[in-house]
Amino acid sequence: MPTSTLSFRQQRNVVPxxxxxxxxxxxxxxxxxxxxxxxxxxREAYRRTNFIVLHRGNVEASELxxxxxxxxxxxxxxxxxxxxxxLALPDTSVFAKDPQTDCANRSALxxxxxxxxxxxxxxxxxxxxxxxxxxxxxxDPLVLRVVEVAPPEPPKLFNLVKHVLSYADLPPIRVELERxxxxxxxxxxxxxxxxxxxxxxxxxxxxxxxxxLDERPAQRRDWVLVGCERSLQFxxxxxxxxxxxxxxxxxxxxxxxxxxxLLKCCLLEFDIERDGQVMVVPWGTDLVMVEHxxxxxxxxxxxxx
Length: 305
Hints:
The chain is of the alpha/beta class. It has helices spanning about 35-40, 105-115, 155-165, 180-185, 230-240, 250-255, 285-295, and strands at about 20-25, 45, 50-55, 65-70, 80-90, 95, 125, 135, 140-150, 175-180, 195, 210, 225, 245, 260-265, 275, 280.
């Protein structure tokens, strides 16, 4: 049976997956739509080849064109090319070699496109991890804001999101970190001693004694609590009072947001919540919860749009 009708040229975030759909071939003719179509029409193509990157000269320093093709038959091992759609010519094609970029990962390709300054009017061809080649056509990734406290370093939720995007089948997403610096928060109320929820490197920068709420200090001291509502509840239970406190809850600090945002809150323990464009996960969240939150936040977005 014949392959489907071509319609990729105007779409955004086109990333062929699996990338074995992409064939990289040398080409010596003129880099025009007419010449490329004449060159490819009627030639046989492998049944898994749906896109071709044509290069004139060395791949790394050549002119590139990216095309999608249709064949007469998807079952035969090889069949003639019946349609050609030119997605990009040399003036809108950019090449990048980056051994750390996974060509099977939409978000990784989108992030590299951002670093290379390739916007939604161009196509990035990537020679990446394992020496494989793929492309992202008209990169226009979704942007996710992660609001997270630091230390620890790297901020945990930000790291979990990057990990999820390394394997999950999600649209291209570029992650922006909005750091909440605990040291800067604590300094809002200068004190000789601070009480923080748990041990974390970097708090020695406070220049004051630091105690840890999860260790339940035996003696109530004259400290400032750097913590959220849950920490305050613990303090009431342990010591029967409320100390001076600096709020550190990302949910409280972030407030209402009009863009996709992910943050965590201690008042959640087992579930995630959505509040408009904000997804909230528990403080002790894991990869499964983070992936579920991202799917809820971006479930209406297609990979190519």
